Amino acid sequence: MGTDVIVVGLGSMGAATAHQLASRGIRVVGVDRYTPPHTNGAHAGGSRIIRLAYAEGAAYVPLLRRAYELWAEIEQASGADLLTPTGGLMLGRPNSSTVAGALASARIHGLAHELLDAAEIRRRFPVFAPDDDEVGVYEEVAGFVRPEATVGTLLDLAGRAGADLRYGVRVTGWSAGPGGVTVRADEGELTAARLVLCPGAGAGELIADLNIPLRVERRVQHFWPVTDTGFALGRCPIWLWESAAGAVAYGFPGAEPAAGSGHRGLVVKTGVHVDPAGVPRSDLGPAEPAEAGRAAELLAPLLPAVASAGQPDGTPCLYTLTPDEHFVVGRHPRHEAVTVAAGFSGHGFKFVPVIGEIVADLAQHGATRHDIDLFAPNRFEVPA
């Protein structure tokens, strides 16, 4: 029996795509150089934010609405606990992109939200110390999803639906022609009618012919020991904050510390999405004290209890960023049998189920009902 679709890369988007295709009765072979879930890409760290009032652009909101539906379907099909609502707070000055963008998305799409001044933020969520001229957009439906658990769940569902999933397979190249596609790997060649590329941080090699100026950057997620119960789940929302200096940070409610850690309070996870003074790195080496020190410096104005909590643990991950920080999702402009999903720019995980649906649509039918014009793979091409 022949293969309909090869999926290269079985991390976040590849796992979702393999699950979608296999559940539709498509004959799928999925390959990955590692064994997902793993710590070699973007999906490590235990949690990722999900929200509807999307500062990155109102065009994302319909996709997020569908993503929420699909998250619920995956939980129902698997019995896994993947999405936890916590409420979400987008903080900054009124003209910051984090606040203004979230507010615009909420108003354009009629999303339930509140606009809180600094005094109200401090009253409702005392762990935050916004400046008097800062505000927050609050939405009840925001929360977090669990990346490693999600990837594992999707791969399990894909395998149960008939997908042939192969790990430890390093892909070195591919070609496409009238007769289908060929994938070159260390263990030999694979052939199929169609190909899906979900290469994560390896996109620069596998979609080099698209000439997308991707960059891979290291980000460290820090886990701070705190004693203030105001950080507890149910009392603290997920949050994003844009400082006056242009730093963009995010974080989560506190969780119980790992067994054997010696800490009796809570552990609060934070990350920095944009550091104006940061030095770009693309390695996955261990987190360093200097990185924690820089994070504490950035967080101190908003979260003094976190910034003074002591040396945190750190988990690095890799962002694969496009110049405009929008995704790359679509059919290859020169190969109709090839679909690409890459460049998720540090904000893609919440979309995992709907990206899987979109990419499966494109591989199966060559089109999707979702509006993905924003993500066109050829948008960076320079006219001859």
From TrEMBL:
It comes from the Bacteria. Residues 4-362 form the FAD dependent oxidoreductase domain. Signal peptide: none annotated. It holds the Pfam family DAO. Keywords: FAD, Flavoprotein, Oxidoreductase. Its cofactor is FAD. GO terms for molecular function: flavin adenine dinucleotide binding; sarcosine oxidase activity. NCBIfam families: PRK11259.1. This is N-methyltryptophan oxidase. It comes from Polymorphospora rubra.
